[in-house]
Design a protein that fits this description.
Order of helices and strands of chain A: HHHHHHHHHHHHHHHHHH
Low-confidence stretches of chain B: 361-366
Number of strands of chain A: 0
Radius of gyration of chain A: 23 Å
Oligomer: heterodimer
Distance between the termini of chain B: 63 Å
Mean pLDDT of chain B: 87
Helix content of chain A: over 70%
Largest interface: A-B, 34 and 34 residues
Strand content of chain B: 5-15%
Number of helices of chain A: 18
Structural class of chain A: mainly alpha
Distance between the termini of chain A: 16 Å
Shape of chain A: globular
Strand content of chain A: under 5%
Largest sheet of chain A: none
Order of helices and strands of chain B: HHEEEEEHHEHEHHHEHHEHH
Chain lengths: 464, 366
């Protein structure tokens, strides 16, 4: 079920909301949220609910283990290693098995061996990367003593399966919502309703009006990338750059808004990333919940910046490589991750000189580097990535984007909003005046019309 | 009082914004004037006496028609030496109305890119059976002198109330609503998107049942209508002959659907949607039997006349992942179809040589 579908807006959300606030006890609210979240998830494919349930039970049991053996380091290590192995095995099987087998067979063929593995064509359960990170972060935080494991299975399953953030994040850590979950029975319906609705409407506008509009130009253009001129290639990639941001940021804002509506404050996921002045700044602003997880659960355990300079660079590259691989089972994602790892390493080495550049150059430079990264991210293979990069940086004649004149106004609007305008978290603090309500009403109308006029398109990040 | 006024104001803003967005969206994405009412039929199709063609340079979303009203880029004119021009004709499966997915003729051109110079034209017309396609071929599409013509017929058209016949009536654009009619309401009427499957299935079955009641006894085909099958075979032979008469090689393609034989339980709702789309007269068994018989007739005709055949039905039937509904392709389906066709086209090219078609610009787009 998509947030931008009428079945969600007209049936699922109203029913969930009304019943939730009719319930008075904390446990009843946990049970209700868990039940509807499984319905939400099962709308795609009910059998994968079992997988999520299994993952939930494994992590919950590990938490009970930490409570039972607070002093035994051996038992605690087992409670850490076994469930994480189970989680990663599931993720590995569903997401990476085909990729690994095909990569091995391609590698063997390169050495002349006639070995081929059949494609398994395993269906990737929606959101598995996200809820696996939820459970792993919980287990690690319990092990480290950062959070106290919960004994309440319903509370834990609400955390893992909460429909607002289930399929595309933000990646919420238990400690970030623990307090709100504990107080769910005493939550005040009206306290955050206005903020929640505002987040949701703005997020939907970002997704439905801005991102999908850009997609209608970008997708056809990139499907025939070999015909694009230099201008066409740049327009397509700039369009994709803003499409990806408004798509994912829009989804995250809708998720945060839904959280507020149910008394659960989810963390922000984007803080105007295209305003970043350097690669490090970019990763503090883009997909914040993922970069936080990579920092705390990969980079720091690898040694972070505590070792030699060479070790720090290695850790940066490895962390970003894993980050790239998390996004998808394709070598283009691996290279995209390595590229960003390299940018972070270069910034660490030469950051002083970079920081002395005029601010506007830092902004544009960072933006261009990010766009180049998106070429690899968007490309289906290296041929496409290389061809697009050549077209962007070597003057090439060819086709521009079809109906480019209709794309430009939205590109300018999206660019100004993303690079100079306020994001939702900044807007939140400006109060709720009549003009804000009118703007939200206008945005709602625009979303309804666009949804009616277009086929519902899935959020880009669902595929991860 | 103030709260009520505010609420009314907010609702009015939602409605006005929705209507404005709909009109601006239509203008910038589809080129439809703000002060008119859109009709996709009128936007994409041109009616000229008895002739139905794509409207030259028409656009709908990502769909772009060229100067000849074919879907896709403009023709290479003159065709470079050594190039082979291929044309695909058929109905919505070939045209592919879903603007986000590339049509299989375009994918075929991509597939052939590494094997030489090929130009593939998509001359399909949505919702049209073989006689109309033949009429358009004879009076319009054949002007561009393709060397190979892929014919992908839709057998289920032959199960409708009246069998397809050669066009004789003068065509007129369908009437449109006045410009001020709320466009959002039109979109709302056209949209069943997002309704839960159970609701859609219920509405569909109710309609099927009502149609059977209205039609009376004997209206629903409970057995394979052999007379309709004969019409299909005759008309397929006729269009293939018309293609061959213009010195093009007709490639016959058997029609593929998502259904196994017998159909999987999970596909029964979609099979009912197929019945609904095909005129509501055929039962589940009959519609599948008709598809199979039409495929057999296509194979028979190809063998009898020596036409190249692509047996898409044999290769694609029952593979649900290749179809977005009962018979239209997903991207994977489009790629599969393109691969099958590419193999046959390369086989034909290896076996025969093609004369260079003359330049077409002198005749121009009508």
């Amino acid at each position: 079920m998509l947030f931008n579908s009428f079945v969600f807006l007209l049936a699922f959300l109203p029913i969930t909301y009304i019943v939730f606030w009719q319930l008075e006890s904390r446990v009843a609210r946990y049970a209700w949220l868990t039940a509807v979240s499984y319905v939400f998830y099962g709308y795609w494919d009910a059998k994968f609910c079992l997988l999520m349930l299994f993952s939930t039970v494994v992590a919950y049991t590990a938490g009970l283990g930490f409570l039972k053996w607070p002093e035994s380091s051996r038992a605690r290590r087992l409670c850490l290693i076994i469930p994480i192995t189970v989680d990663l095995s599931l993720l590995g099987f569903f997401k990476y098995a085909d990729f690994a087998l095909q990569s091995v067979s391609a590698g063997l063929r390169a050495f002349g061996a006639e070995v081929g593995f059949p494609r398994l064509d395993i269906i990737l359960p929606v959101g598995i990367s996200f809820y696996t990170f939820h459970t792993i972060s919980y287990i690690v935080d319990c092990y480290r003593g950062v959070v106290r494991p919960t004994r309440n299975l319903l509370e834990f399953s609400t955390y893992v399966s909460l429909f607002a953030q289930l399929v595309a994040g933000p990646i919420v850590r238990f400690r970030q919502v623990e307090q709100d979950l504990e107080n769910l029975g005493k939550a005040d319906r009206t306290r955050w309703l206005g903020v929640g609705v505002a987040y949701f409407v703005v997020g939907m506008f970002e997704k439905v009006v801005v991102a999908d509009y850009l997609a209608s130009f970008v997708d056809p253009a990139l499907s025939r990338y070999w015909e694009l001129s230099t201008t066409g290639a740049w327009l397509a990639m700039l369009g994709y750059t803003f499409q990806l941001y408004f798509d994912f940021s829009g989804y995250s804002d809708m998720a945060v808004g839904l959280g507020y509506m149910f008394g659960i404050r989810l963390p922000i996921n984007f803080n105007s990333p295209y305003k970043a002045l350097n690669p490090s700044d970019f990763w503090r602003r883009w997909h914040i919940s993922l970069s936080g997880c990579l920092r705390d659960y990969v980079y720091i355990p690898l040694g972070g910046n505590r070792g030699s300079e060479a070790q720090t660079y290695r850790n940066l590259l490895l962390t970003m490589l894993i980050g790239g691989l998390w996004h998808g089972a394709n070598w283009t994602f691996v290279v995209w991750g390595l590229y960003h790892g390299m940018l972070l390493a270069l910034y660490r080495a030469f950051g002083g000189a970079w920081d002395r550049l005029p601010r506007v150059l830092q902004l544009i430079g960072t933006f261009v580097l990010v766009v180049v990264g998106w070429v690899m991210f968007r490309s289906t293979d290296f041929t496409m990535a290389a061809d697009l990069l050549v077209r962007m940086f070597v003057p090439t004649s060819g086709e521009s984007i079809d109906r480019g004149a209709a794309l430009l106004p939205m590109l300018v609007f999206a660019g100004i909003w993303a690079m100079a305008g306020p994001n939702m978290h900044e807007l939140k603090d400006r109060g709720c005046l009549l003009r804000h309500r009118l703007a939200l009403a206008a945005a709602s109308g625009a979303c309804v019309a666009t949804m009616l006029g277009a086929a519902g398109s899935p959020f880009l990040y669902f595929q991860f | 009082m103030v709260r009520t006024a505010q609420a009314v104001l907010l609702i009015a803003v939602v409605i006005i914004s929705a209507e404005l967005t709909a009109r601006v969206d239509d203008k910038v994405r589809r080129g439809i004037s703000v002060f008119s009412q859109p009709s996709w039929d009128v936007t994409l199709m041109r009616r000229d006496s008895t002739l139905l063609t794509g409207r030259p340079h028409a656009r709908k979303g990502a769909i772009r028609l060229n100067a000849y009203g074919f879907r896709g880029p403009d023709l290479r004119d003159p065709l470079p030496p050594g190039c082979v021009r291929i044309m695909a004709i058929g109905a919505s499966e070939t045209f592919d109305e879903n603007g986000r997915v590339e049509d299989y003729p375009r994918l075929l051109e991509n597939q052939l890119r590494d094997h030489g110079c090929f130009e593939v034209l998509n001359a399909a017309i949505v919702g049209q059976a073989l006689p109309r396609l033949q009429h358009t071929w004879e009076h319009h599409a054949s002007r561009v002198a393709p060397s190979i013509v892929i014919i992908y017929p839709t057998p289920s058209f032959y199960l409708r109330d009246v069998p397809p016949a050669y066009p004789t009536d003068v065509l007129h654009d369908p009437p449109t609503r006045p410009w001020w009619h709320p466009r959002v309401l039109v979109w709302l009427e056209e949209s069943t998107l997002g309704w839960p499957q159970v609701v859609r299935t219920h509405l569909l079955r109710r309609e099927l049942s009502a149609a059977a009641d209205t039609g009376g006894p004997g209206w629903v085909y409970s057995e394979l209508p052999l007379d309709r099958l004969a019409v299909y075979e005759r008309q397929l032979d006729s269009i293939a002959t018309a293609v061959a008469q213009r010195n093009a090689i007709p490639v016959l393609v058997t029609h593929a659907t998502r259904f196994d034989r017998p159909p999987a339980k999970a596909d029964l709702d979609i099979l009912d949607a197929f019945r609904h789309n095909s005129g509501q007269r055929a039962t589940r068994d009959v519609i599948l039997a008709f598809e199979d018989s039409a495929a057999a007739a296509t194979r028979r005709l190809a063998a009898r006349r020596g036409y190249p055949l692509v047996d898409a039905a044999a290769k694609m039937n029952g593979r649900g992942e290749l179809f977005s509904d009962f018979m239209h392709f997903t991207p994977a389906g489009g790629h599969t179809m393109a691969r099958l066709l590419a193999a046959k086209v390369l086989e034909i090219v290896r076996e025969r040589s093609f004369p260079q078609p003359p330049g077409v610009s002198a005749r121009g787009a009508k």
